[in-house]
Amino acid sequence: MNIDILIHAKWIIPVEPKETVYENYALAIKNDKIVALSNSEDARRKFIAKEELFLENHALIPGLVNAHTHAAMSLFRGLANDLPLMDWLNNHIWPAEKKWVSADFVKDGTELAIAEMIRSGTTCFNDMYFFPDSTAEICANIGMRVVIGLIVIDVPTSWASSSDECLVKGEFVHDAYKHNPLISTAFAPHAPYTVSDDSLKRIMVLAEELDIPIHMHIHETTDEIEKSINQYGKRPLERLSDLGLLSSRLIAVHMTQLEKNEIEELKKTRVNVAHCPESNLKLASGFCPVGKLQKNNINVCIGTDGAASNNDLDMLGEMHTSALLAKGVANDCTCSDAHTTLKMATLNGAKALGLSESIGSLKKGKQADIVAIDLNQIETIPLYDPLSQIIYAADRRQISDVWIAGKRLLDNKKLTTLKYKQLIEKLILWEKKIKE
User: Fold this and answer.
1) β pairing state of 183-189 and 122-127
2) What is the signed CA dihedral for 201, 202, 203, 205, rounded to 10 degrees?
3) Are 305 and 279 in contact (CB under 8 A)?
4) At residue 85, does pLDDT exceed 90?
5) In the chain, what's the furthest Cα-to-Cα distance?
6) Within 13 Å, how many C-alpha atoms sit on residue 101's CB side?
7) How far is the C-alpha of 395 from the C-alpha of 317, rounded, in Å?
8) Residue among 350, 341, 344 nearest 388 (CA)
9) H helices present in 144-221, as ranges
10) Residue 436: pLDDT over 90
């Protein structure tokens, strides 16, 4: 059988079947899809490949799915550190956004974010930011898989003057990219405290009509809970439940403030939770009870949040932090083991985004979104368990190659669809402008 690429690797960790590690295996790609996984010797007999790679010290894993980002905010990386969330937002980030955010800002910031994400193994990200049309344009040009958040917020912004205008513009973005195989959309109401009941009701109806997810910050801080009780007489989740918003369509981001009855409600309504451990830690927002959610079979995925609050978009590092934090919060060293953590960062993220039929695992018929990690490095030797080393010891600089839909976007650590030097030059100009 003629194929495009045959990749031989020391290990392949497919996520499906669960808790599986193949040794001395090969992965066959034709066009944009995986057509087979098999023993390397058998694969060489069966396939005639245009390109054949031998990664003798590498593990192949599915492309990582970053379930929550604000990509363009990479241009604000390090702008305001060591501050509580509302101080950080109200007195630093929102004023900076008011001054600087534009279509060009979003294009350049997104380009920076994608470069970082590809270099650290992310092949799909779920974004929430202004000028989503600009984010989509950059992703299409680079060949990055993305779920574009159709941002909705009641206050005027440089993108739209009202929530009504957000929805009109959002539908236009959805229609413009609905036939692009790498670009999906989700409604992205910012948070319960910035979006009214009427807007949320409209979003729910439109999301049903377009059959797309809803992506929202929920229960991020104690301050959010207190304000909701003062304004509505109820906690945000109860308010959203009363509006009919809790369903498998919803991706609830952060969820650091949860009570027992709320976890039961999440289980019943099959809400997805996007856990952002490093951002929550840095802003001291609280701890998502990942262990309790997993015991209740709630789909938990992993996101980095934006580089303005993290301060990186490194999903390999996020998996490490997520696994350790979950154990500490649960007081259970078996919580979020290595296989579970990799699944959170791949298949669980794909499921939350409605993309699990096409990405999230290395399986015949799925899109060829693949990451190669060189484990023959000081940081990961000696090596007794490749997945354990990936989750607990590996560094993103060990990622050598990345494919999205069968196209190699990182080739031996070099970006193939981005011009590195020109990007750095643009970013230095932004740094100078923002500093001044």
Assistant:
1) unpaired
2) 90
3) yes
4) no
5) 69
6) 24
7) 7
8) 341
9) 163-177, 197-210
10) no
